[in-house]
Design a protein that fits this description.
Layout (H helix, E strand, L loop, with lengths): L3 E5 L1 E2 L2 E2 L1 H17 L3 E7 L7 H4 L6 E6 L8 H15 L3 E5 L2 H14 L3 E5 L1 E8 L6 E12 L4 E5 L7 E5 L16 E3 L33 E5 L6 H14 L2 E4 L1 H5 L20 E5 L5 H4 L7 E6 L12 E4 L2 H15 L2
Parallel strand pairs: 1-4, 1-6, 4-5, 5-12, 6-11, 7-11, 13-14, 13-15, 15-16, 16-17
Antiparallel strand pairs: 2-3, 8-9, 9-10
Length: about 350
């Protein structure tokens, strides 16, 4: 009762990385609250194949719903699984990925249970809240933190009354880690028929195509990212040359993607990919809140910018004052000379 729950997405019998990231965060939240961490996974033919991908992240209890029709994902049965399970278990927090599935499932569950839902959170914390109107004080609420109003502010959202407190988080925002402590590791296999009516299976998936990401920004140790200050698609060619010399990947800000200079799946930020490289080289990027949310945890941040007052310079470890056209060719020349 009142535990922290994480909904785990799967592709076949493979648990999504974002779910493992959320299990890691969920474990920390559960420890802070003094409750248990529970996980839910639903699919077809997954019994005995997903447990080892979930339990090592500190799960006390894993609910495995295994039945025909639960994979590929469709809205109705997965909604019934969570809604009916949550009516029994009454969790205080539920986390899920801000993926295509999470964005479909989360609102359905929250509206059915009359609870709140905050999308695309960049941070999750536990804290207290004083309601000015009612004069009530609340302890141990989930702070659901995300950029708002076009990224001009960072909003902290709370849900004092209704449960569960629900949040979605994009892949890469949280970092996954095997849990070093002790967890119960209990696994239960509920009777799906008790949770999902047969009418929920009326929708059948006739054909399905999943295309893997072309670029591995999340796994790159070095990211060379360009913004609107790069100036053109040809300007990005220089960034690709530099990234190749450094054995890194090329990223971009939303402005550069919107200009059509680079593929959308290279976008770093709140509405793109969140990266944790050892080195992040920001070329001609102003550094709006949405972009910073996707790269602020980089080991070393280097900013190349001709605007000394650019917001990104405030979080950069090193600032090179100059245009991308001036600086990047010199970096390429230097690395070519010194990498032989």
């Amino acid at each position: 009762m009142n535990n922290v729950f994480v909904y785990c997405e799967i592709e076949g019998t493979t648990v999504a990385e974002v779910s493992q990231e959320l299990l890691t965060k969920g474990r920390k939240l559960a420890n802070e609250l003094g409750v248990e961490l529970e996980a839910v996974v639903a699919g077809t033919g997954i019994k005995g194949k997903v447990e080892d991908q979930i339990l090592p992240y500190g799960v006390d209890k894993l609910h495995v719903f295994d039945a025909e029709g639960l994979f590929p994902y469709t809205s109705a049965p997965h909604t019934s699984v969570l809604v009916n399970l949550f009516k029994e278990e009454k969790p205080q927090i539920c986390l899920m990925g801000a993926t295509v599935i999470g964005r479909d499932l989360g609102p359905r569950v929250s509206s059915s249970l009359f609870s709140g839902l905050t999308a695309d959170c960049t941070e999750l914390e536990i804290g207290s809240y004083d309601d000015v109107k009612t004069k009530k004080h609340y302890d141990n609420l989930l702070y659901q933190i995300r950029p708002a109003f076009g990224g001009n502010i960072v909003a902290t959202i709370v849900n004092p009354e209704n449960r569960p407190q629900m949040a979605t988080v994009r892949s890469g925002v949280m970092q996954k880690a095997i849990y070093e402590g002790q967890a119960k590791g209990e696994v239960v296999y509920p009777d799906v028929a008790k949770y999902v009516p047969t009418t929920d299976f009326v929708v059948k998936v006739i054909d399905r195509h999943v295309e893997a990401a072309k670029h591995n920004l999340k796994g790159a140790a070095i990211v060379v990212a360009g913004g609107y200050g790069v100036g053109s698609k040809e300007g990005f060619d220089q960034l690709f040359v530099l990234a190749k010399e450094l054995h890194g990947e090329v990223g971009a800000s939303r402005a550069a993607v919107d200009a059509g200079w680079v593929d959308a799946d290279r976008q770093v930020g709140q509405t793109g990919v969140t990266v944790h490289p050892k080195v992040y080289i920001a070329c001609g990027i102003s550094g709006q809140i949405q972009h910073i949310a996707g790269m602020q945890d980089a080991g070393i941040i280097i900013s190349i910018n001709n605007d000394p007052d650019a917001p990104i310079n405030k979080i950069a470890d090193y600032v090179i004052n100059g245009t991308v056209e001036e600086v990047v060719p010199k970096l390429i020349k230097y690395y070519k000379q010194n990498s032989k």
